[in-house]
Task: structure prediction
Amino acid sequence: MALLKTRNAPAVSDREIDTTDLLRVEKVAVSFTGDVDVLSDTSLRVDKGEFVTLLGPSGCGKSTLLNMTAGTLKPNRGEIFFGGKKITSVNRQVGYVTQEDTMLPWLTLAANIGLPLKMRKVAKSEIKDRVDELLLNFGLDHAGHRYPAQLSGGMKKRGLLARAMIYKPELLLMDEPFAALDAQMRAQLQRDLRAAVRDTGVAVLFVTHDLEEAALLSERVVVIGGSPGHIIDDIPIDLGPERDPDTLRFDEGFREIGQTLHRSLQRARGITP
Amino acid sequence: MSTNIEEVVTPDRDDAVAAVAKASMLGKKKRQRKSWIQTSSRLGAVVVFLILWSVAAGTLVDTFYLPEPTAVAEEIWDWILDGSLWTNIMATMVPAAQGFLIGGISALVLGYLFAMSKTVSMVLEPFVAAAYGIPVVALVPLLILWLGIGRSLAVGVSAIVVFFLIFYNVYFGIKDVKQEFIDQVRIAGASQWDLVMRVRLPSALVWVVASLKLAVPHALVGVVVAEFLTGSEGLGYMLSSNAAQFNAAGTFASVVVLAAISFALDRIVFMISRRALMWKETAER
Result:
Protein backbone atom coordinates (compact mmCIF):
# COMPACT_ATOMS: atom_id res chain seq x y z
CA MET A 1 0.00 0.00 0.00
CA ALA A 2 1.41 3.37 -1.00
CA LEU A 3 0.96 5.65 1.93
CA LEU A 4 1.15 9.41 1.77
CA LYS A 5 4.06 9.32 -0.65
CA THR A 6 3.50 12.80 -1.94
CA ARG A 7 3.99 14.80 1.20
CA ASN A 8 7.04 15.99 3.14
CA ALA A 9 9.28 13.30 1.70
CA PRO A 10 12.71 14.59 2.79
CA ALA A 11 11.91 14.65 6.51
CA VAL A 12 13.64 11.34 7.18
CA SER A 13 17.03 12.33 5.84
CA ASP A 14 16.86 15.68 7.63
CA ARG A 15 16.32 13.99 10.93
CA GLU A 16 19.99 13.67 11.88
CA ILE A 17 20.68 17.33 11.20
CA ASP A 18 17.53 18.74 12.72
CA THR A 19 17.95 18.17 16.43
CA THR A 20 15.38 20.66 17.68
CA ASP A 21 13.20 19.01 20.25
CA LEU A 22 9.47 18.82 19.58
CA LEU A 23 8.23 17.67 22.96
CA ARG A 24 9.92 18.26 26.29
CA VAL A 25 8.48 16.87 29.49
CA GLU A 26 10.21 18.30 32.53
CA LYS A 27 10.04 16.74 35.99
CA VAL A 28 6.35 16.05 35.77
CA ALA A 29 4.29 14.47 38.54
CA VAL A 30 0.61 13.60 38.57
CA SER A 31 -1.75 12.32 41.21
CA PHE A 32 -5.43 11.75 40.70
CA THR A 33 -6.89 11.34 44.16
CA GLY A 34 -4.53 13.44 46.21
CA ASP A 35 -1.44 12.16 47.94
CA VAL A 36 -0.35 9.09 45.91
CA ASP A 37 1.43 9.95 42.67
CA VAL A 38 0.58 8.00 39.51
CA LEU A 39 3.61 9.41 37.78
CA SER A 40 6.51 11.09 39.54
CA ASP A 41 9.57 13.05 38.50
CA THR A 42 9.35 12.11 34.84
CA SER A 43 11.34 13.87 32.13
CA LEU A 44 11.20 12.97 28.47
CA ARG A 45 12.20 14.41 25.13
CA VAL A 46 10.89 13.63 21.68
CA ASP A 47 12.67 15.08 18.65
CA LYS A 48 11.05 16.09 15.39
CA GLY A 49 10.26 13.06 13.28
CA GLU A 50 11.25 10.63 16.03
CA PHE A 51 9.25 7.48 16.83
CA VAL A 52 9.27 6.92 20.58
CA THR A 53 7.39 4.16 22.35
CA LEU A 54 6.40 4.16 26.00
CA LEU A 55 6.48 0.57 27.19
CA GLY A 56 5.33 -0.63 30.57
CA PRO A 57 2.80 -2.59 32.59
CA SER A 58 -0.78 -1.35 32.80
CA GLY A 59 -1.46 1.50 35.16
CA CYS A 60 2.08 2.86 35.23
CA GLY A 61 1.11 6.26 33.85
CA LYS A 62 1.83 5.85 30.12
CA SER A 63 -1.58 7.10 29.01
CA THR A 64 -1.39 9.86 31.60
CA LEU A 65 1.75 11.13 29.91
CA LEU A 66 -0.06 11.17 26.53
CA ASN A 67 -3.07 12.99 27.94
CA MET A 68 -0.82 15.67 29.40
CA THR A 69 0.87 16.09 26.03
CA ALA A 70 -2.57 16.43 24.45
CA GLY A 71 -3.39 19.06 27.07
CA THR A 72 -6.50 17.29 28.35
CA LEU A 73 -4.80 16.64 31.69
CA LYS A 74 -2.71 19.04 33.75
CA PRO A 75 0.34 17.85 35.72
CA ASN A 76 0.40 18.60 39.45
CA ARG A 77 4.09 19.47 39.26
CA GLY A 78 6.50 20.07 36.40
CA GLU A 79 6.02 21.46 32.93
CA ILE A 80 5.50 20.23 29.39
CA PHE A 81 6.71 22.12 26.33
CA PHE A 82 5.57 21.49 22.79
CA GLY A 83 7.45 23.20 19.97
CA GLY A 84 9.09 25.41 22.58
CA LYS A 85 5.80 26.57 24.08
CA LYS A 86 4.40 25.49 27.42
CA ILE A 87 1.18 23.46 27.14
CA THR A 88 -1.58 25.17 29.06
CA SER A 89 -4.74 24.06 27.25
CA VAL A 90 -5.85 21.49 24.67
CA ASN A 91 -2.98 20.92 22.24
CA ARG A 92 -4.36 21.08 18.70
CA GLN A 93 -0.98 20.53 17.06
CA VAL A 94 -1.02 16.82 17.82
CA GLY A 95 -3.02 13.95 16.34
CA TYR A 96 -4.54 11.52 18.81
CA VAL A 97 -5.50 7.90 18.20
CA THR A 98 -6.62 5.56 20.97
CA GLN A 99 -7.90 2.02 21.30
CA GLU A 100 -11.41 3.45 21.45
CA ASP A 101 -13.56 3.91 18.35
CA THR A 102 -14.17 7.64 18.32
CA MET A 103 -15.66 7.96 14.83
CA LEU A 104 -18.82 10.05 14.90
CA PRO A 105 -21.37 7.39 13.94
CA TRP A 106 -23.71 9.85 12.20
CA LEU A 107 -21.04 11.03 9.73
CA THR A 108 -19.73 9.04 6.77
CA LEU A 109 -16.12 7.92 6.79
CA ALA A 110 -15.17 10.77 4.42
CA ALA A 111 -16.95 13.34 6.59
CA ASN A 112 -15.26 11.94 9.69
CA ILE A 113 -11.81 12.22 8.14
CA GLY A 114 -12.53 15.75 6.89
CA LEU A 115 -14.00 16.91 10.22
CA PRO A 116 -10.77 18.38 11.70
CA LEU A 117 -10.27 20.54 8.60
CA LYS A 118 -13.92 21.60 8.64
CA MET A 119 -13.57 22.72 12.25
CA ARG A 120 -10.36 24.52 11.33
CA LYS A 121 -12.31 26.48 8.70
CA VAL A 122 -10.48 25.10 5.67
CA ALA A 123 -12.16 25.66 2.28
CA LYS A 124 -14.55 22.92 1.17
CA SER A 125 -12.80 22.09 -2.09
CA GLU A 126 -9.49 21.75 -0.31
CA ILE A 127 -11.04 19.47 2.33
CA LYS A 128 -12.44 17.24 -0.39
CA ASP A 129 -9.06 16.98 -2.11
CA ARG A 130 -7.24 16.12 1.11
CA VAL A 131 -9.89 13.58 2.15
CA ASP A 132 -9.76 11.88 -1.24
CA GLU A 133 -5.98 11.78 -1.09
CA LEU A 134 -5.98 10.21 2.39
CA LEU A 135 -8.75 7.73 1.53
CA LEU A 136 -6.66 6.59 -1.40
CA ASN A 137 -3.44 6.39 0.60
CA PHE A 138 -5.06 4.31 3.30
CA GLY A 139 -6.81 2.03 0.80
CA LEU A 140 -10.24 3.30 1.82
CA ASP A 141 -11.25 4.96 -1.46
CA HIS A 142 -14.18 2.58 -1.96
CA ALA A 143 -15.58 3.23 1.52
CA GLY A 144 -15.74 7.04 1.85
CA HIS A 145 -19.54 7.13 1.60
CA ARG A 146 -20.05 4.46 4.25
CA TYR A 147 -21.04 5.02 7.86
CA PRO A 148 -18.67 3.79 10.59
CA ALA A 149 -21.04 0.98 11.59
CA GLN A 150 -20.61 -0.46 8.10
CA LEU A 151 -16.82 -0.64 8.41
CA SER A 152 -14.61 -3.39 9.78
CA GLY A 153 -12.38 -2.74 12.79
CA GLY A 154 -9.28 -2.38 10.63
CA MET A 155 -10.95 0.08 8.24
CA LYS A 156 -12.17 2.17 11.16
CA LYS A 157 -8.69 2.22 12.65
CA ARG A 158 -7.16 3.37 9.35
CA GLY A 159 -9.90 6.01 9.14
CA LEU A 160 -9.04 7.25 12.63
CA LEU A 161 -5.37 7.39 11.69
CA ALA A 162 -6.28 9.38 8.56
CA ARG A 163 -8.46 11.73 10.65
CA ALA A 164 -5.59 12.32 13.08
CA MET A 165 -3.16 13.04 10.22
CA ILE A 166 -5.30 15.19 7.93
CA TYR A 167 -4.26 18.46 9.57
CA LYS A 168 -0.58 17.47 9.34
CA PRO A 169 0.24 17.44 13.05
CA GLU A 170 3.91 17.30 13.96
CA LEU A 171 3.30 14.64 16.59
CA LEU A 172 0.99 11.65 16.66
CA LEU A 173 -0.08 10.39 20.07
CA MET A 174 -1.13 6.76 19.91
CA ASP A 175 -2.51 4.99 22.97
CA GLU A 176 -2.50 1.23 22.33
CA PRO A 177 -4.21 1.93 19.01
CA PHE A 178 -4.05 -1.63 17.68
CA ALA A 179 -4.79 -3.51 20.90
CA ALA A 180 -8.31 -4.59 19.96
CA LEU A 181 -7.42 -5.96 16.51
CA ASP A 182 -6.62 -9.51 15.45
CA ALA A 183 -2.99 -10.42 14.76
CA GLN A 184 -3.17 -10.14 10.97
CA MET A 185 -4.94 -6.78 10.95
CA ARG A 186 -2.55 -5.59 13.57
CA ALA A 187 0.51 -6.47 11.47
CA GLN A 188 -1.06 -4.72 8.46
CA LEU A 189 -1.72 -1.55 10.46
CA GLN A 190 1.79 -1.58 11.90
CA ARG A 191 3.10 -1.64 8.31
CA ASP A 192 0.70 1.16 7.35
CA LEU A 193 1.81 3.26 10.29
CA ARG A 194 5.51 2.78 9.55
CA ALA A 195 4.90 3.77 5.92
CA ALA A 196 2.90 6.85 6.94
CA VAL A 197 5.65 7.89 9.35
CA ARG A 198 8.31 7.40 6.69
CA ASP A 199 6.38 9.40 4.10
CA THR A 200 5.27 12.32 6.24
CA GLY A 201 8.10 12.56 8.75
CA VAL A 202 5.62 12.91 11.60
CA ALA A 203 6.93 12.19 15.09
CA VAL A 204 5.10 9.53 17.10
CA LEU A 205 4.68 8.97 20.82
CA PHE A 206 3.29 5.47 21.00
CA VAL A 207 1.99 3.64 24.06
CA THR A 208 1.89 -0.14 24.28
CA HIS A 209 2.47 -2.98 26.70
CA ASP A 210 3.40 -5.28 23.81
CA LEU A 211 7.15 -5.76 23.73
CA GLU A 212 7.33 -6.91 20.10
CA GLU A 213 5.20 -4.04 18.86
CA ALA A 214 7.49 -1.59 20.65
CA ALA A 215 10.61 -3.09 19.07
CA LEU A 216 9.09 -3.33 15.59
CA LEU A 217 7.89 0.23 15.35
CA SER A 218 10.09 2.56 17.29
CA GLU A 219 13.46 4.23 17.15
CA ARG A 220 13.55 4.58 20.91
CA VAL A 221 11.73 2.68 23.64
CA VAL A 222 11.18 4.34 26.99
CA VAL A 223 10.32 1.79 29.66
CA ILE A 224 8.09 3.08 32.44
CA GLY A 225 7.22 1.22 35.60
CA GLY A 226 7.10 1.17 39.37
CA SER A 227 4.73 2.83 41.73
CA PRO A 228 4.61 5.79 41.39
CA GLY A 229 5.50 5.42 37.71
CA HIS A 230 8.89 6.67 36.55
CA ILE A 231 11.27 6.06 33.67
CA ILE A 232 13.24 2.83 34.14
CA ASP A 233 15.17 2.71 30.88
CA ASP A 234 15.64 4.58 27.63
CA ILE A 235 16.64 2.10 24.93
CA PRO A 236 17.54 3.07 21.33
CA ILE A 237 16.38 0.62 18.66
CA ASP A 238 18.86 0.71 15.78
CA LEU A 239 16.96 -1.06 13.07
CA GLY A 240 16.94 1.76 10.54
CA PRO A 241 13.96 3.54 8.98
CA GLU A 242 13.08 0.78 6.48
CA ARG A 243 11.57 -2.12 8.36
CA ASP A 244 9.74 -5.16 7.17
CA PRO A 245 8.01 -6.70 10.19
CA ASP A 246 7.70 -10.07 8.43
CA THR A 247 11.46 -10.59 8.02
CA LEU A 248 12.46 -8.57 11.08
CA ARG A 249 10.77 -11.03 13.42
CA PHE A 250 13.41 -13.65 12.58
CA ASP A 251 16.37 -11.25 12.63
CA GLU A 252 19.11 -11.93 15.20
CA GLY A 253 19.53 -8.28 16.16
CA PHE A 254 15.82 -7.93 16.63
CA ARG A 255 15.81 -10.85 19.06
CA GLU A 256 18.58 -9.28 21.09
CA ILE A 257 16.61 -6.07 21.31
CA GLY A 258 13.62 -8.12 22.40
CA GLN A 259 15.66 -9.64 25.22
CA THR A 260 16.94 -6.27 26.36
CA LEU A 261 13.39 -4.92 26.40
CA HIS A 262 12.18 -8.01 28.23
CA ARG A 263 14.72 -7.61 31.02
CA SER A 264 13.91 -3.93 31.32
CA LEU A 265 10.20 -4.67 31.43
CA GLN A 266 10.82 -7.24 34.19
CA ARG A 267 12.48 -4.52 36.21
CA ALA A 268 9.55 -2.22 35.46
CA ARG A 269 7.22 -4.84 36.90
CA GLY A 270 9.39 -5.02 40.00
CA ILE A 271 10.86 -8.45 39.23
CA THR A 272 14.66 -8.44 39.61
CA PRO A 273 16.36 -10.98 37.34
CA MET B 1 -25.92 -8.93 1.90
CA SER B 2 -22.82 -8.30 3.95
CA THR B 3 -20.07 -8.89 1.41
CA ASN B 4 -17.08 -7.43 3.17
CA ILE B 5 -14.86 -5.51 0.79
CA GLU B 6 -12.08 -5.49 3.36
CA GLU B 7 -11.40 -9.17 2.85
CA VAL B 8 -11.02 -8.92 -0.88
CA VAL B 9 -7.52 -8.32 -2.25
CA THR B 10 -6.91 -5.27 -4.40
CA PRO B 11 -6.96 -6.57 -8.04
CA ASP B 12 -10.40 -8.07 -7.52
CA ARG B 13 -11.74 -5.08 -5.71
CA ASP B 14 -13.57 -3.53 -8.65
CA ASP B 15 -15.40 -6.83 -9.12
CA ALA B 16 -16.16 -6.89 -5.46
CA VAL B 17 -17.52 -3.36 -5.52
CA ALA B 18 -19.70 -4.27 -8.48
CA ALA B 19 -20.89 -7.40 -6.66
CA VAL B 20 -21.84 -5.38 -3.61
CA ALA B 21 -23.66 -2.82 -5.75
CA LYS B 22 -25.57 -5.58 -7.54
CA ALA B 23 -26.45 -7.28 -4.27
CA SER B 24 -27.77 -4.03 -2.81
CA MET B 25 -29.86 -3.43 -5.96
CA LEU B 26 -31.39 -6.88 -5.72
CA GLY B 27 -32.01 -6.20 -2.05
CA LYS B 28 -33.82 -3.00 -2.95
CA LYS B 29 -36.15 -4.84 -5.34
CA LYS B 30 -36.81 -7.46 -2.71
CA ARG B 31 -37.62 -4.79 -0.15
CA GLN B 32 -39.95 -3.02 -2.58
CA ARG B 33 -41.89 -6.24 -3.14
CA LYS B 34 -41.98 -6.89 0.57
CA SER B 35 -43.39 -3.43 1.30
CA TRP B 36 -46.04 -3.91 -1.40
CA ILE B 37 -47.17 -7.15 0.22
CA GLN B 38 -47.19 -5.40 3.57
CA THR B 39 -49.36 -2.53 2.34
CA SER B 40 -51.87 -4.72 0.53
CA SER B 41 -52.30 -7.10 3.45
CA ARG B 42 -52.87 -4.15 5.78
CA LEU B 43 -55.54 -2.83 3.42
CA GLY B 44 -57.04 -6.33 3.37
CA ALA B 45 -57.26 -6.32 7.16
CA VAL B 46 -59.14 -3.00 7.05
CA VAL B 47 -61.61 -4.38 4.48
CA VAL B 48 -62.23 -7.53 6.55
CA PHE B 49 -62.75 -5.37 9.64
CA LEU B 50 -65.27 -3.15 7.79
CA ILE B 51 -67.22 -6.19 6.53
CA LEU B 52 -67.39 -7.74 10.00
CA TRP B 53 -68.47 -4.39 11.41
CA SER B 54 -71.26 -3.87 8.90
CA VAL B 55 -72.49 -7.45 9.45
CA ALA B 56 -72.53 -6.99 13.24
CA ALA B 57 -74.17 -3.54 13.23
CA GLY B 58 -77.97 -3.83 13.40
CA THR B 59 -77.94 -7.65 13.76
CA LEU B 60 -75.71 -8.54 16.71
CA VAL B 61 -75.52 -5.06 18.20
CA ASP B 62 -78.18 -2.33 18.19
CA THR B 63 -77.21 0.58 15.91
CA PHE B 64 -77.75 2.83 18.92
CA TYR B 65 -74.45 1.43 20.25
CA LEU B 66 -72.78 0.40 17.01
CA PRO B 67 -73.75 2.42 13.94
CA GLU B 68 -73.43 1.10 10.39
CA PRO B 69 -70.04 1.98 8.79
CA THR B 70 -71.98 3.75 6.05
CA ALA B 71 -73.68 5.98 8.64
CA VAL B 72 -70.25 6.91 10.01
CA ALA B 73 -68.98 7.63 6.50
CA GLU B 74 -72.06 9.78 5.81
CA GLU B 75 -71.43 11.75 8.98
CA ILE B 76 -67.82 12.43 7.94
CA TRP B 77 -68.99 13.35 4.42
CA ASP B 78 -71.45 15.90 5.89
CA TRP B 79 -68.65 17.44 7.96
CA ILE B 80 -66.48 17.72 4.89
CA LEU B 81 -69.34 19.42 2.98
CA ASP B 82 -70.21 21.97 5.64
CA GLY B 83 -66.51 22.65 6.29
CA SER B 84 -66.70 21.82 9.99
CA LEU B 85 -64.23 18.92 9.65
CA TRP B 86 -61.44 21.18 8.41
CA THR B 87 -62.16 23.91 10.99
CA ASN B 88 -62.13 21.37 13.80
CA ILE B 89 -58.98 19.66 12.58
CA MET B 90 -57.21 23.02 12.43
CA ALA B 91 -58.60 24.00 15.83
CA THR B 92 -56.87 20.92 17.22
CA MET B 93 -53.73 20.73 15.13
CA VAL B 94 -52.62 24.36 15.54
CA PRO B 95 -52.51 24.28 19.35
CA ALA B 96 -50.97 20.79 19.17
CA ALA B 97 -48.18 22.13 16.96
CA GLN B 98 -47.70 25.16 19.21
CA GLY B 99 -47.64 23.00 22.31
CA PHE B 100 -45.20 20.63 20.66
CA LEU B 101 -42.83 23.47 19.75
CA ILE B 102 -42.99 25.15 23.16
CA GLY B 103 -42.60 21.85 25.03
CA GLY B 104 -39.93 20.55 22.68
CA ILE B 105 -37.75 23.65 22.66
CA SER B 106 -37.88 24.13 26.42
CA ALA B 107 -37.05 20.43 26.86
CA LEU B 108 -34.05 20.88 24.56
CA VAL B 109 -32.78 23.97 26.38
CA LEU B 110 -33.38 22.69 29.92
CA GLY B 111 -32.17 19.19 29.06
CA TYR B 112 -28.95 20.73 27.75
CA LEU B 113 -28.54 22.90 30.87
CA PHE B 114 -29.16 19.95 33.17
CA ALA B 115 -26.66 17.78 31.32
CA MET B 116 -23.96 20.43 31.19
CA SER B 117 -24.22 21.94 34.66
CA LYS B 118 -23.73 19.63 37.61
CA THR B 119 -25.06 22.31 39.97
CA VAL B 120 -28.29 22.79 38.05
CA SER B 121 -28.99 19.06 37.80
CA MET B 122 -28.01 18.44 41.43
CA VAL B 123 -30.37 21.09 42.76
CA LEU B 124 -33.34 20.66 40.42
CA GLU B 125 -33.30 16.99 39.40
CA PRO B 126 -35.59 15.73 42.23
CA PHE B 127 -38.18 18.40 41.46
CA VAL B 128 -38.28 17.52 37.78
CA ALA B 129 -38.59 13.85 38.69
CA ALA B 130 -41.46 14.64 41.07
CA ALA B 131 -43.22 16.80 38.47
CA TYR B 132 -42.78 14.02 35.93
CA GLY B 133 -44.80 11.71 38.15
CA ILE B 134 -47.87 13.97 38.31
CA PRO B 135 -50.59 12.86 35.88
CA VAL B 136 -51.10 15.76 33.48
CA VAL B 137 -54.87 15.59 33.88
CA ALA B 138 -54.35 16.51 37.53
CA LEU B 139 -52.63 19.71 36.41
CA VAL B 140 -55.54 20.79 34.21
CA PRO B 141 -57.48 22.61 36.97
CA LEU B 142 -54.33 24.56 37.83
CA LEU B 143 -53.75 25.35 34.17
CA ILE B 144 -57.35 26.52 33.84
CA LEU B 145 -56.66 28.90 36.71
CA TRP B 146 -53.59 30.25 34.91
CA LEU B 147 -54.54 30.09 31.27
CA GLY B 148 -58.34 30.13 31.33
CA ILE B 149 -60.27 27.78 29.08
CA GLY B 150 -59.77 27.65 25.34
CA ARG B 151 -56.78 27.45 23.07
CA SER B 152 -54.11 28.55 25.49
CA LEU B 153 -55.15 25.77 27.85
CA ALA B 154 -54.85 23.23 25.03
CA VAL B 155 -51.39 24.57 24.15
CA GLY B 156 -50.33 24.44 27.80
CA VAL B 157 -51.44 20.85 28.38
CA SER B 158 -49.79 19.63 25.23
CA ALA B 159 -46.57 21.55 25.95
CA ILE B 160 -46.28 19.94 29.39
CA VAL B 161 -46.88 16.45 28.05
CA VAL B 162 -44.31 16.94 25.28
CA PHE B 163 -41.78 18.55 27.62
CA PHE B 164 -41.50 15.55 29.89
CA LEU B 165 -41.36 13.08 27.03
CA ILE B 166 -38.43 14.87 25.40
CA PHE B 167 -36.60 16.38 28.39
CA TYR B 168 -35.15 13.15 29.79
CA ASN B 169 -34.06 12.02 26.35
CA VAL B 170 -32.10 15.21 25.76
CA TYR B 171 -30.63 15.04 29.26
CA PHE B 172 -29.44 11.45 28.99
CA GLY B 173 -28.50 11.81 25.33
CA ILE B 174 -26.09 14.63 26.08
CA LYS B 175 -24.75 13.05 29.27
CA ASP B 176 -24.20 9.83 27.36
CA VAL B 177 -21.31 11.30 25.31
CA LYS B 178 -18.01 9.86 26.51
CA GLN B 179 -15.31 12.24 27.73
CA GLU B 180 -12.77 10.51 25.49
CA PHE B 181 -14.96 11.36 22.50
CA ILE B 182 -15.09 15.02 23.52
CA ASP B 183 -11.34 15.15 24.16
CA GLN B 184 -10.46 13.75 20.76
CA VAL B 185 -12.76 16.11 18.90
CA ARG B 186 -11.29 19.02 20.87
CA ILE B 187 -7.75 18.00 19.96
CA ALA B 188 -8.90 17.72 16.34
CA GLY B 189 -9.78 21.43 16.53
CA ALA B 190 -13.33 21.76 17.91
CA SER B 191 -14.50 24.98 19.51
CA GLN B 192 -17.12 24.91 22.28
CA TRP B 193 -19.72 25.66 19.62
CA ASP B 194 -18.47 22.75 17.49
CA LEU B 195 -18.77 20.45 20.49
CA VAL B 196 -22.41 21.43 20.99
CA MET B 197 -23.45 21.40 17.34
CA ARG B 198 -21.33 18.55 16.02
CA VAL B 199 -21.08 16.16 18.95
CA ARG B 200 -23.44 16.74 21.88
CA LEU B 201 -26.67 17.62 20.07
CA PRO B 202 -26.28 15.01 17.29
CA SER B 203 -25.61 12.44 19.97
CA ALA B 204 -28.76 13.50 21.84
CA LEU B 205 -30.68 13.56 18.56
CA VAL B 206 -30.74 9.78 18.44
CA TRP B 207 -32.60 9.79 21.73
CA VAL B 208 -34.81 12.74 20.81
CA VAL B 209 -35.87 11.20 17.52
CA ALA B 210 -36.74 8.00 19.36
CA SER B 211 -38.87 10.04 21.78
CA LEU B 212 -40.70 11.81 18.91
CA LYS B 213 -42.65 8.64 18.25
CA LEU B 214 -44.32 9.22 21.62
CA ALA B 215 -44.11 13.00 21.87
CA VAL B 216 -45.83 13.88 18.57
CA PRO B 217 -49.04 11.87 19.12
CA HIS B 218 -49.06 12.96 22.77
CA ALA B 219 -49.05 16.60 21.72
CA LEU B 220 -52.35 15.76 20.03
CA VAL B 221 -53.59 13.83 23.06
CA GLY B 222 -52.87 16.84 25.27
CA VAL B 223 -55.00 19.10 23.10
CA VAL B 224 -57.83 16.58 22.77
CA VAL B 225 -57.95 16.08 26.53
CA ALA B 226 -58.13 19.85 27.08
CA GLU B 227 -60.90 20.21 24.45
CA PHE B 228 -62.71 17.27 25.92
CA LEU B 229 -62.77 18.92 29.33
CA THR B 230 -63.34 22.56 28.48
CA GLY B 231 -63.32 23.20 24.73
CA SER B 232 -65.87 24.68 22.39
CA GLU B 233 -64.16 23.61 19.17
CA GLY B 234 -61.72 21.02 17.86
CA LEU B 235 -61.70 17.24 17.53
CA GLY B 236 -61.93 16.60 21.27
CA TYR B 237 -64.99 18.83 21.48
CA MET B 238 -66.51 17.10 18.42
CA LEU B 239 -66.09 13.80 20.19
CA SER B 240 -67.54 14.90 23.54
CA SER B 241 -70.47 16.84 22.06
CA ASN B 242 -71.52 13.95 19.79
CA ALA B 243 -71.28 11.53 22.69
CA ALA B 244 -73.30 13.90 24.87
CA GLN B 245 -76.05 13.92 22.25
CA PHE B 246 -76.04 10.08 22.07
CA ASN B 247 -75.07 10.37 18.41
CA ALA B 248 -73.17 7.08 17.98
CA ALA B 249 -72.39 7.69 14.29
CA GLY B 250 -70.97 11.13 15.08
CA THR B 251 -68.92 9.76 17.99
CA PHE B 252 -67.53 6.97 15.83
CA ALA B 253 -66.83 9.44 13.04
CA SER B 254 -64.81 11.62 15.43
CA VAL B 255 -62.80 8.61 16.56
CA VAL B 256 -62.15 7.63 12.94
CA VAL B 257 -60.90 11.14 12.14
CA LEU B 258 -58.60 11.09 15.19
CA ALA B 259 -57.30 7.67 14.19
CA ALA B 260 -56.62 8.87 10.64
CA ILE B 261 -54.73 11.91 11.91
CA SER B 262 -52.62 9.94 14.38
CA PHE B 263 -51.85 7.45 11.63
CA ALA B 264 -50.69 10.25 9.33
CA LEU B 265 -48.59 11.79 12.13
CA ASP B 266 -46.99 8.45 12.88
CA ARG B 267 -46.02 8.05 9.22
CA ILE B 268 -44.50 11.54 9.17
CA VAL B 269 -42.50 10.84 12.33
CA PHE B 270 -41.41 7.52 10.87
CA MET B 271 -40.15 9.24 7.74
CA ILE B 272 -38.35 11.97 9.69
CA SER B 273 -36.68 9.52 12.02
CA ARG B 274 -35.63 7.27 9.18
CA ARG B 275 -34.00 10.23 7.48
CA ALA B 276 -32.33 11.44 10.69
CA LEU B 277 -31.11 8.00 11.70
CA MET B 278 -30.08 6.84 8.25
CA TRP B 279 -26.59 6.05 9.50
CA LYS B 280 -28.08 3.63 12.01
CA GLU B 281 -30.48 2.04 9.56
CA THR B 282 -27.81 1.30 6.97
CA ALA B 283 -25.72 -0.35 9.64
CA GLU B 284 -28.49 -2.64 10.79
CA ARG B 285 -29.31 -3.94 7.34
In short: The longest helix of chain A spans residues 183-200. Chain A touches chain B at residues 67, 70-72, 90-92, 94-96, 98, 100, 102, 104-108, 115-116, 119-120, 139, 142-143, 146-152, 154-155, 163-164, 167 (CB under 8 Å). The radius of gyration of chain A is 18 Å.
